[in-house]
Each structure stands twice: as structure tokens, then as C-alpha cells.
Amino acid sequence: MEVKKRAKIKSFPYEEFKDNETYEKLVQELNANGANVIVTQLDNLIDWGRSNSLWPLTFATSCCGIEFMAVCAARYDIARFGFEVTRNSPRQADVILVSGTITTKMAPVLKRLYDQMADPKYVVAVGGCAISGGPFTKSYHVLKGVDKIIPVDVYVPGCPPRPESFLYGMMQLQRKVKVEQFFGTTNKKQKEPKE
Amino acid sequence: MTLDNIKTLEPAQLRQEMEGLKAKGFDFLSNLIGMDWGKEGGLGVVYCVENTNTHEQQWLKTATADREQPVLPTVSDLWDIANIYEREAYDFYGIIFAGHPDMRRIFLREDWVGYPMRKDDKPEENNPLRMDNEPLADDTTEYSVAADGTVTTKKNTIFGPDDYVVNIGPQHPSTHGVLHFRVALEGEIIRKIDPVLGYIHRGVEKLNESYTYPQTLALTDRLDYLAAMQSRHALCMCIEKAMGIEVSERVQVVRTILDELQRIDSHILFFSCLCQDMGATTAFLYGFRDREKILDIFEETCGGRLIINYNTIGGLMADIHPNFQKRVKEFIPYMRKNIKEYHAIFTGNVIFQNRSKGIGPLTKEQAISFGCTGGTGRATGWANDVRKNHPYAAYDKVDFNQVLRENGDSFDRYMIRLDEILESLNIIEQLIDNIPEGNYKEKTKPIIKVPEGTYYQAVESSRGEFGVFLESKGDKSPYRLHYRSTGLPLVAAMDTACRGFKIADFVTIGGTMDYIVPDIDR
Amino acid sequence: MSNNNYFSGIFFGVKSLLTGLGVTMKEFFTRKITEQYPENRKELKMFDRFRGRLVMPHNDKNEHKCIGCGLCQMACPNGSIKVTTESVELPDGKKKRQLVKYEYDLGCCMFCELCITACPQGAIEFCTDFENAVFDRTKLVQQLNLPGSHVAEKPVAPKPAAPAAEKPATEKPAAPAAEAPANTNPEKPAAV
Amino acid sequence: MFDFTKVTNWIDALLLSFLPGWAATLVECVLVALVIITLYAVFAIILIYMERKICAFFQCRLGPNRVGKWGSIQVLADVLKMLTKEIIDMKNVDRLLHKMAPFLVIVASMLTFACLPWNKGAGVIDFNIGIFFFLAAGSIGVVGILLAGWSSNNKYALIGAMRSGAQIISYEVSIGLVMLTMIVLTGTMSFSEICQQQADLGWNIFRGHIPAALAFIVYLIAGNAECNRGPFDMPEAESELTAGYHVEYSGMHFGFYYLAEYLNLFICAGIASTIFLGGWAPLHIWGLDGFNHVMDYIPGAVWMVGKTFFVVFLLMWIRWTFPRLRIDQLLALEWKYLMPLSLVLLVVMALCVSLGLTF
Q1: What pTM was estimated for this model as a whole?
Q2: What kind of architecture, by CATH, is found in domain B211-449?
Q3: Is B352 on the interface with D (CB under 8 A)?
Q4: B-contacting chains (≥3 CB pairs under 8 Å)
Q5: What was the pLDDT predicted at D275?
């Protein structure tokens, strides 16, 4: 598998990324069937477009949302990646950054937002709360990880993760998008949440 | 402050006593705290009323032994804010307030089973994750007690069949988080607002009851994350006073400086978000640009940008960083210069002026009755600054003005915040060169146990009076730890402020009220 | 509205708009403050006190200082730390507790520093690494003690960075206590 | 000045040499349509890139710079993504209208785009009532927006659409009046003649001096409002209505709205430069023959595009500086300030022209 060739991220050597083991496994799963050259090239083109145009949904529940705003602001400027077009309508967004605690009251709302998004859609769990309930794991009203209700593509730990961590997480997501197949497999992802 | 003079009342006496206090000028209901004193003590409520002229506080409590159907008289007709507070007590403890017009749950889902803050309730067992859409009733129940003690109910309507109800939130860019307003519109004009809270209710108060004291500190930063310093300061102070720990002068001064930096941070964010809400995206980025300077100061000294985690029981986690003073001194002139830019690009702008002047006004009486402390209250002329009224830390050693304005409209609420940035810079300037020598942390025992008693400590957080109410039974965990939310009164006042204005004004009013949702829901 | 107000309103309105335009035009030509993260990775340095991730420093003999007392686990508010120990018999017949596995859940950690304050040995600290995003939730549960490592017989070197609560805190503006944990141990435990 | 009719005549003659008349016309139509659509797409991409860069620079940041050199192919990535994104089929919407609405918007925008005179002899839709046609075609767009809001079965979309209807129809009044003012000056409604006149006599903004300059400002404000762009972006008003009338659109249907927004901006600027700034006419200064001669060497299309982008920059500058108006203030601005002003301008211009006070 030409993992390295397909998932190059500008100014970031492949070897220095974390969790390459899971990544390579993922690539192998995705490319198990193989595809012909033309289709691969087209796939690459589409993946290139998608990975460089991940428009986030304006969605924030707590502290991490403020850091997300900081990422969008001048100092860290997520626009450099082309992700600054935050959409307020889930229909037009590509990625939902679940930044903040998801309570049990919010859970159906989040699920609905996710369902409203158009494919291809991605989920990034930002911060301890979204990953596992974080500081509020022991609470009676907090969902212990959003992966219980929606499939998560990338986990960005931190409480809240600093802006660079955000960007790093987004680059990880880019890597994931870059190895997907548009042709050959089903266009719609049939991902199911864990459990 | 140790509360050794709480007046205990029988439920039957409560109304009379409260009416008397209200007539005596105790017009600010600062706290209404639901309590569960177990089998013997019963379910009850602790009230704190404050006289806004003399700043005298009066604490009262009442309880009922009936756990099946606990009924207490309402005070929601005396203080507007009691409406929301009593709903909170109903939600958490199941205490029914007779005469309250709107006895619905406020934080939890309407189909929630049980009352989670009761000591004998098992919320997680009774409430598996429900993924169906939340039911939202259009009518509500009012309970009343007849002379013979029977409880009768009556239906009240919130939204009728003819109301054009638009849901603003829970996922909406201008609610600053997951806040849900059901807004009845007539064209573009707002007729009624019904806030639905609890989308970020994390049960912090319940969690606290199982945490040790140092652990409880970790959650305060996450309540109002733009007042992390101040909230944590309040809790630390409360525990220190309860245990009789004297912190050094140095700690007092450093805490004061950091509190003020946090206030500036919060107010800049307020400015930025207001600009964003009103469509001036560029000004939003200018605000964030300047805020980064403060975050750098925080991060260098405390190790965190937003969740700062610096105050601790008995002092500070670590001493200030050697660069701290230098950075702060660089920041003061920088910020003074940039405030002028804010005024040039946004304050003076004719579009902003037209959209904010006279929009969503609150009168002083309304602000007091709703308990809208902080900038929102001071914009109406209500001098409610805790730093002045009940000085703490190093605030009695510095010279600063309490910024007040008269109109109470959106523009005044906005200007108050920008002026407070300058005032905070003044405070910092006075202190930064005079940080006294001393320990940065007093030695504490490895296991912290607060002596039995009831304690309260308020601080002026970024957006109003933040209070910590602590009841201890002498254990290593608090028996009850309640936080006075700064944002809840502001949300409660939204309906009053918004009625008759346009849907675009809702954004302005919400923005200038400056609430932070995790602090409301706790 | 009188005519006077109408026209002066226009005048002041236009003036305020022009002021705003002036500000943005000035910023248009000001140097941009953006820090370009992946490009500046080499120069990018976090503040020393920044809490990125919990690590257990090991010396070059693959020794750490954890005695497996479990105080950190007790101090942790939300169970992010799990210390597994076993009892081994020493040659002199005494029983001694020994660390087997120190599991740390980065995805749950709230960076409150209570574990570090609780640790009597100064065996754990926060490193400033912030690039932690992964694809798999289980990758966030890390084992902090390196494979084959064991507890150092004697303290490696009297560490200046004993946790703040340990020593009577004294005033040292020039060299604050928490500044030192620095780079004594840059190694990063491999994710399990 | 290079006359583009030479090229078109040559193509015409070439086609006629081996095709019957009707077939030649058909081929020409297809060719022109292709050129227009390509230009449309290219300009949309340039404009979106430009907006993102300029907005970043106003906000002391860098903007896209990782996709291609200086982020230059960022928008291509967006387009690719948008093309391959799912278009959600929804229950409870008015299917036909919901699907039709984005096409109406894009068609209106393309029709008006075709009105722009690119060079001498290079106007696609050019006849004696060109301005009238432009106004008529432009107002199809508002139907698309209204239908989008109505058919989406969404309260936000409905409010957005209603706002948009009120806004666009109001500002159409000002635009019409301002154009009338300039027609009084030029005496013609044909875009090519307007440009030719300006090439011969000087730009309209100089010829018509004070009334023309004021009319230019009124046009910019009203045109900006017509495009639903900040500070007049009420129909989308992100902070109030999340995304306004297109809240329920995804994929390329949303893409159409997105493209049309930018192209409408370009068209608005293009018409401003045609009517006020001389279109493809080069800058001439009286008495400086050498300078004028040099200016004549620059092709007309460059002048046209250059002027248009200058106006686009002005509009972007405004957008990224000001907060959004409220709907009633927006209407007050039109009916209390702009409309009376444009009526006065019309009268003043008529007086100037009849008294010979224009240059």
C-alpha cells in the first residue's frame, strides 16, 4: 500500500504523526479491493478536494468552543488550511467538531445534527468531555464519549486542547480523508457508532 | 464568611417574613438554594436577601419533612428571579412551590425520573440515555394549597396555538453555546421568550458532594470558563476562611491581578462575540488578537490558556513566572491603545449605535428584581460591585471606580464592559510593581476537612456576583456546595428585555447581556 | 425628526463609517500576526508550565521513581489514572510493592495537577507535547512506565522540582519551583 | 482601440463558409454560451479566493496559504468537494420549487453576467434597451430566493426569504432611479453605446460630475444590498437566521447560491464600472496626449476587468468593516435616504443636461 504517497501533509513529515499504526490499518481496509489506475487518480483528486475543504459546523457547547474560536482567529488562523468557512447550517458543513461536554439532554440534538449533515461527513471529538466525559465522567447527566452515539473519526485530547492541537487534529483528519475511496465503494459511509 | 445567623423559619411563617424583608429594602434575592437535610432535616430552601443600599445580607432557611410531596410557599411574586430559582429547586429536589405560576423542570428533560440532588436519588439508574426528541410542553402547572392542606393544580399556557414559535438554539450561533430559547414571533417582532436550559447541565453541584475539597476546585474553572480565575478564587477563599487559613499578602495581590486580567480577557471576548453577532467579523478578530496576549500571560504562569487551574487552597499552585511582571507591564499600554481602535471601528459606528441605543433596556428595579449583577446591573445604575460592597483580596488597597451608567440599554451594557477594561488596567497598574514578598502557598494538611458549618463567599466575577455556598458536616467532602450562577439571572431577564423588539435585537440583547451557558447550567 | 437632525445624522453617520474604514485599511497593511503552526514546528516552543500530557520520566538506566503507592490514583477526580502493583519478595524476606503498569487515560484527563501534587516521589510530571490527536480511542490510554523499567534504587538526583506542596513554599522569584521540571527527560513513553 | 467585432466577424464568416445560416448561428450560440459559463466559473473562483484573502488581510491574518502557492487553488478544492457532496432529499418540502430555486438564481445571475460589455464589440447581450433587460433579468433572482425560503419548510428560511424579498425589491427602486439618472446623461440604454460614448467623451463619473459621483455612491450601496452582502446580508444573517433562505440546501444546490452571491457582486461592480467608470474605455486625461496614447495600448478587457475588481475591492472593504443593519433600518436607509436622494439626483441631472452643464 502506498500509504506515504497518498497522505502527504504539507510541512509535516509522515513519520512524525502519531498513531500511524491505526492509520495504516485503516488504509489497508479501505484499499483492500484495489482499483484501477484511472479510478485511483480520480479518487486522489476528489480526496484532495475534500481534505482541503473541510468546512466545520459552528457547534460548540463549552470551553473547547472558545478555543475553537481562537483557532479561527488571527493568531492561529484555520483559514490557512481553507477551513475558515464555518457553516451554521449542518446541511452545508463537512465536519462537526464536537467541542465540549455533551449532556444526555444534548445527545439527541447532537445525533440529529449529525444526521442532518450531508455525506461525506466527519466527526472530530475535541477535548476530554467529548472523548470520554472528561472531568464530568462521574456525572449523572453527561454522555461518556460521543462515540457512543455518533462515529468519531479523530480524537483530540486536551482540556481544552490548545489551538495547535486542534490544527494537528485537523491534519490527522485530512490524512484520513485523503485515503478514502469515492469510486468502487459505496459513496455513503455506513458507519455505526461503537456499542 | 461564616453564616452563623441563618434564621430558621417554619414554611407557614415564610411569606410574612419575606414580605416584611422586601418592604424593609431587601430587594435583591441573591441566592435561593435547594437543600436536602436528610430524613430528619427534610427538604428545604436557603434564601439570601440583600439590601441594595446598605449591602446588608439576611440569610433564612425553611424546610418541610414531607418527602413525598414537599410543598413550600413561593416568593416568585416578590422577586422576579425567584421564578427561575424555584424551578431549579423543583428540578433538583422536587420541592413544589405553591403559587408559582410555572412549575416545570428547568435543567433536566421533562421526562426525567426522580430528583437528582436528593441524597437518596439514583439518577443514573432511573434515567438511561434517551435518544428520542425531548418533549416540550406548551403548558405548565401551577400548584396551590387550599386552607385544609390539599394541593390542587391548575394549567397555565406558555404558548398558545396561534403563536409562531421559533426555536433559537440549542445549536445556534448567537446563543453562545447550547442555550435554547423558544421565541414567539409576530413578523420580526418578539412577543415572548421561554428559555429552555440544561443542555450543558453537568451536575457539578452533585459531583462536588462526592469529591474531596481539592477535587472540587478542578470543576470551578469549567463553570464560567471566562471567569475561571475568579470562580476558583471564590471557592478557595471560602474554604480558606472556613478552615482559618490566612494566605499571604503576596497571594492576595497576585490573585487580584489575575482576577483583573481574567476580567479583561472576558470583556475582550464579550466585545469580540458581540461584533461577530452583529456581523462585524473583522472587529471580532481584533479582539481575539489582543486576547491572545493575556492568554500568553496566563499560560506562562499558570500552564493553561482557558482552564487555568492556578489558585489552590492556601495559595497558588506555583509562584508567578519571572516574566510575569514584564509581560503584564507590556500589556497595559498595548491594551489602552487598542481600546481606542475598538471604539473607532465599532463603538462609534453609526450602524452599531442605531442597533444598540435604546434596545432591550432594563430599569434599575428590574435589574435588582432579576438579580442581574455585574455589567448588566451596573448599566442600569445599580451599584452592585462586590469588590466595593464586600471587599476581598487586595481590592481594599487599590483605588478604582465602579463604572456606572444610567440607561440600562444594550449600548450602556456594552460601554460598561469596555470602560471596565480600562478600570481593570488601572487596578493592575497599581499592583503590578508592588507585589509583596511572601509565601506563595501556605502549608495545608494532606487531607482537607472543613469544620462543620455553613459558609458563603462572593466575588465579582467577569459578569457579576459569583457566590459559593458551602455547607460542611466536617467531612473531607462538602455536604452541599452551591454556586450562585452569574448568568442565570441574565437569561431570566431576557424575556423582559426582548419583548417588543425585533429578532435581530434579540442577538444584540443576548450579546450584551453576556451570559456564559455552562455557568448557567452548572 | 427635525431636518437638522436628519442632515447632521447623515454627516456623523458617514464620518463614523469612514473612521471604521480607516481602521481596517490601516490593518490591511499592518504586519500579520499569524503563527503558521505546522510550518513553524521547529521553532515552536511551549511554555514550560504548559500541561500537555502526563509522563513518567525515566533516566538513562530505564528507571523511574514511582513506588506504586497509588496516591495519584486516589487524588484523580475522574479516574484517569490506574496503577497496577504487585508484591515481590525481596532477598531479605521483606515484601515490597512494585509498579507493574501505570495506565493513564489522556482522553479523560482534566489537567488539574492533583496527581503531581499528591505524588510523594516526584515521579510524574506534565510534558509540553501537544500533538496527541489519534484515530482510535484506545490509543489515548497510555502506559507511562516503559517496558522493562523498574523503580530507581535511590533517588536519581535530588530533584529541584519536587512538587510545590511538598516543601514549605518559599519565595524564590528568580527560580520558581515549577520551572525546573524542564527537559531532564525528553523521552516519550511509546503509546501502547 | 482594438475592436472585438473583427474576431466575431471572422468566426462568423468561417462558420458560414461551410454551414448553412441557421447552423452557424446555432454553433455560435453554443460557443458563446460555453465562453460565458467558463468565464462565469473562472470569475467565481477568482472572486472567492480574492474575498478570502482580502478578508484575511483586513483581519490581520494570512488566509488560505496551504493549498497551492499562497493557497491559490484553495477554491478549486472547495468546488471539487461541493460537486461530490450529497444533495439531501428532504421530506415535507415542496420538491419542485425546492429543486428549481437554485437554478433560477443561477440563471438570473448568468443572464445579467452576459450583459457586461467586455471590450469594444464584445458584449454578448447588447441591444438598444440593454439596461432595461439587465434590470428585468436581475430580478428573477429574487424569485429564486423567495421560492427557496418558501419551499424549504423551515422557519428560518422563510424569515430570510421574506426579508430578502423586501430588501431586494426596495433597493431595486434606487438602482432603477440611479440608472435612469445616467441614462439621462448618456441618452441611450445600450451598454455598448454607453461605453463608446465614454471612450469618446470621457467617463460618465467625470462628465456628470457631482450628480454622477453621488449616483455612483448610491449605486454602490444599493447594488451591495441587491447582492445580499454585508452589511446588508440580512437574508442570511448568520447570527440570527443561521443561514437564512438556503439553510436547507446542501451540496451543489448550496454551491449555486454561493457562486451566485459572488458573481452578483462581480456583476454589480461590472455594471458600476460600465455605467460610471467607462467600462472598457481607457483612462484619458485632457491635454496629456502621450499618456492617453499609452493608455490606449492596454486592451479594453483589461480596463473593464481592472475597474470591476477595483469596485469589488471597495465593496469587500465595506463588507469586512461594518456590522450588519437591522431589517427596519435597512428599509429606512432605502426609503428615507437613498430613494429621495436618487430622485433629487435624477432631477439635478436632467437640469444639468438640459442646461448643458455636463462635460
Answers
A1: 0.86
A2: Orthogonal Bundle (1.10)
A3: yes
A4: A, C, D
A5: 86
